[in-house]
Amino acid sequence: MVAVAAGSSSSLIIRDDHFDRARITLPAEAEPLTKFDSAIEWLLYGVLIFSPAAMGVVHSWSELIFVGLCAGIAICLALKLLVRRDLRIVWNWSYLPVGLFILLALVQLISLPSALIGAIAPQGLTLRTSLVSDLPQPTSALKRLTVSFYPLATRHDLWLMLSCATIFFAVVNVFRRRQQIRRLLFAITLVAAAVILLALLQDVARTNAIYFKWLSPSGFANSGPFANHSHFSQFMSLSIGAAIGLMLIRLREMTSLARFLPSSLGERIHLPEFRVIWLCAFVIVTGALAIFLSMSRAGITSTLLASIFIAIMMARHRRMRPQGWIMLLLALFLAAGFSYGLFSVTYDRWINAHHITSARDRWQTIRDAFTAWRTSPIVGTGLGTNAVIFPMFDRSESSAVSVYADNDYAQAAIEMGIVGLVLVLAFLTLTWINFARGIRKGASRTCVAAFGLGFGLFAVMLHGSSDYGQHIPAIGALTAITCGLLVTLSRLQPGTESTLEFLDPMITPSRFTPILRLATTVAVAFVSFYALSDLNASRQADAFANQASVIAADLEQKDWQDTNEAFAALLTAAESAVHAQPQDMTRRYWLNVYRWRSISRVTDDESGSLLMSPESTEFARQILTDLNDQRLICPTFPEPYGLAGQIEAFILEDTAAGYAHIRTAQALQPNDDLACFNVGLIDALEGRFDESIAHMQKANRLNHSMLEQAVHVYLDRVDRPDLAIAVAHGDAGWLIQVAQLLDEDHVELRKAALLEAMTLLKERCREPGATSDTFATAASLCWDHQDYVGAAEHYRRALDSDYGQVQWRVALARSLAKSGQADQAMQEARICLRLDSQTVAAQQLIQELSLQGHPSPITRDSSTSAQPPASRQ
User: Fold this and answer.
1) Nearest of 183, 181, 184, 176 to residue 31 by alpha carbon
2) Residue 123 has what pLDDT?
3) DSSP 8-state assignment for residue 470
4) CA atoms within 13 A on the CB side of 340
5) How remote is the C-alpha of 207 from its chain's centroid?
6) Residue 543 CA, distance from chain mean position
7) pLDDT value for 747
8) Judging by DSSP bridges, how do beta strands 209-210 and 144-146 pair with one another?
9) Residue ranges of the alpha helices (H) in 57-177?
10) Pairing relation of β-strands 209-210 and 214-215?
11) Chain centroid to CA 831
């Protein structure tokens, strides 16, 4: 047995029962840990544990806690600077791009003369001017502007950015000892193991609820505590990198102490050092498996490529070749396991039409991001403003609002301009330079961790080209830790395994006067207090907004018809949300929506039109005033334009202004189904029917429930039922739905719609890959047009793919009987009874065919003349 104990001096004693006692001497820690260092270390462990546990920190309450923990780290660093006059702050060139990036975000929040804004971003100033030019005194409103189009969003993202920067700075300056680095890597590995176990349990249980309690937005939960499988994959890639780094350290230590270890492998694997190695191996293997099971295409690709990259880097290093071959074999093993066990599942996902469309949408997003970047190409539109800038340039026809671009680099270009993107790339370049310095010191037992950390960084950089993971605090924090450790390892002097002495000159204490130290502490405390106050206001606003949404959902089920007390409760909650954060555009917009709902409850019993009293009309004017005030806060926020336009056009009878604002809302968010529908409505009212049809078709592509409302517009508002058919032209499903909506006064139009639908379905049936539902629907339409031979043919083809559909087989039997093929109809009916002996329709059909005694067609008066069932589509 081997025991390691500390002697009375700075040496370490390693006891071996099989050998005489051996003593080796290692340098002691030159600088003991302070209470501030210990506090920072524990706070960082808190960040590591809390961030993934809180679903990646995607809610306002979790952001408050996350920033609070990081603020605690910053305050401890400032207090250490204040108390310890002998403190040496580590300098690294990586601070420069981080500091300049933060400074750029601060500049974006400063109110500047509009002339300066125009010189920096002329296209952006033109856009703002055009959007608010109709407001009273637009010149005074545009006299001074911020670079950011939405300062509240910029301030919110700035707090998260500062938190991650604090983590990076703390790791570089505090984690300067081998034991600290090992503890940090162990903590990351342990947290990753817990996340992996949760993900695997969810996979086995096939649950659609995160923590088996909260429903996942994607409809299935296979990514541990994360709602998005891409975010889970990036977090796991970074964690696997930390596990690889810790395992390499342990392997190198075991190699160095091999002569003091038992000769039996069975005795060695029971040592504590080997237990950590087994834990690391578990995280590496099962973490890769969890990424594969999450079905993240970018996650799988980046993991495999990162494994190959690090294996090659290790194989090129003379002292790391054995471990490099191990990593390469591990990568090949993972690839083989993926190919054998998960290939078919993943291949189906990759070729699935929905995901092909998704990939195309992402590529379209990148191209549209380039167009959006031109709005303010130098300094960007403001950190966190993608959600209010990008939608107006989005041509992917995806109804989801792109709060984040599916590309971290593209979003950096939009929000921070070319300056911000260059700073991001500069930071990454400096980090890889630190990686290169670290691996050159691969002989060190600690620096070998750089290979594992490089694996994680390489994987998330690849993944960042197709996702926005770095905007998720759990991933951003872990990336900051990874980069900070790479900086630390790059500065480790060869041969100083216990104390990490740095290569570059440090800032001497004399440069930090007591006044400067005190000013730094006060500034850190002030910024921390301001950030926490701001995020707490956001948390309170979300809490009140959630209360309002619960009440609103109940009122919506009642068609917004309820007591005044119910609406008073709704408005109180919504007003409290706005009071907590007055600059929040979303909260203010929904408050005005609820106000409008409260005054628009009375309708005419006969016509269904809205009845407005003078008091309600005046209240509508107040709502309009508040909506216009919102536009000054963020001119590109689309929703206020739409609501304001409807009030102006249909209540205040100012159709010119109202129609203009409705069109502006659709221009700012062209993929919003309601905005497209409203523009289609006013186009129809103005007699621009071609444009109306195009907008209605797009609205229905974004939201299929819009078709029914479009039909009612053409039937009731403009008396053009033929346009209802025109909207559905070219889509069989839409044509069938329109035919069902047409009343008895439009029999010919209904027949025309069904005939076109049948023609389209027959053409689709001739294409390869047609589904059984398509054949069944075509068969049902053939029956409607008394084409019984065609109906029988298509039902047969539908049953070729889905033999057990009894109702389709009954319909086939009826079609055969109608076409004079009584013997075959009898045979199909008997098959129905073999599949389900309780099929009444098949029993009746057999009885009627038996009574006839010959294969003549069944008369139309027979009970079997009922319509065959429609498809399941």
Assistant:
1) 176
2) 92
3) G
4) 6
5) 20
6) 22
7) 85
8) unpaired
9) 60-83, 95-108, 114-120, 122-132, 138-141, 151-174
10) antiparallel
11) 50
Half-sphere exposure (Cβ direction) of 697: Cα atoms closer than 13 Å:
15
Count of C-beta atoms within a 10 Å radius of residue 182: 20
For residue 361 the two structure tokens come to 């949408």
Length of the chain: 873
Beta bridge partners of 507: 89
Q: DSSP secondary structure string, 716-766?
A: IIS--HHHHHHHHTT-HHHHHHHHHH--GGGHHHHHHHHHHHHHHHHHHHT
What pLDDT is recorded for position 714?
93
Nearest to 574 by CA among 597, 558, 602, 601: 597
Q: What share of the chain is helix, strand, coil (3-state, %, to 5)?
A: 70, 5, 25
Q: Is 670 helix (H, G, I), strand (E, B) or coil?
A: coil
CA nearest 597: which of 615, 613, 616? 616
Buried b (16+ CB within 10 A) or exposed e, 620-652: beebbebbbebbebbbbbbbbbbbbbbbbbbbe
- What pLDDT shows up at residue 368? 86
Residue 560's CB is within 10 A of a number of other CB atoms, namely 15
**pTM as predicted:** 0.84
Q: Is 380 left (phi over 0), alpha (psi -120 to 50) or beta?
A: left
Amino acid letter for position 37: D
CA atoms within 13 A on the CB side of 362: 16
Pull the structure tokens for residue 524. Answer: 């850190």
Handedness of CA 858, 861, 862, 868 (dihedral sign): positive
| Rounded-to-integer distance, Cα 698 and Cα 681, Å | 13
pLDDT of residue 435: 93
Q: Which pair of structure tokens corresponds to residue 593?
A: 């929506």
Report DSSP state, residue 857.
Answer: P
The rounded distance, in Å, linking the Cα atoms of 557 and 470 is 39
Q: Which amino acid is at 804?
A: G
Long-range Cβ pairs for the range 681-690 (8 Å, 24+): 681/713, 681/717, 682/649, 684/713, 684/714, 684/717, 684/718, 684/720, 684/723, 685/717, 685/718, 686/659, 689/720, 689/723
Q: Report the candidate in 246, 265, 102, 113 with the shortest Cα–Cα distance to residue 187.
A: 246
* Residue with the two structure tokens 């055969």: 816
Rounded to whole angstroms, how far apart are CA atoms 355 and 41?
42
Both structure tokens of 694: 């195009």
Low-confidence ranges of the chain (pLDDT < 50): 1-30, 259-260, 340-341, 343-345, 347-357, 495-510, 854-873
- Largest pairwise CA distance in the chain: 113
- For 606-630, the pLDDT digits (tens) are 666 778 888 889 999 999 999 999 9
177 touches 499 (CB < 8 A): yes
Q: Tokens 């389209």 label which residue?
A: 760
Instruction: Give me 96's structure tokens.
Output: 């420069």
Distance CA 152, CA 387 (A): 12
Could you tell me which residues come within 8 angstroms of residue 265 by beta carbon, excluding any fewer than 6 positions away?
none
Q: What are phi and psi of 623, to 5 degrees?
A: -60, -45
DSSP structural state of residue 393: G
d(CA 574, CA 546): 9
Distance of alpha carbon 374 from alpha carbon 737, whole angstroms:
42
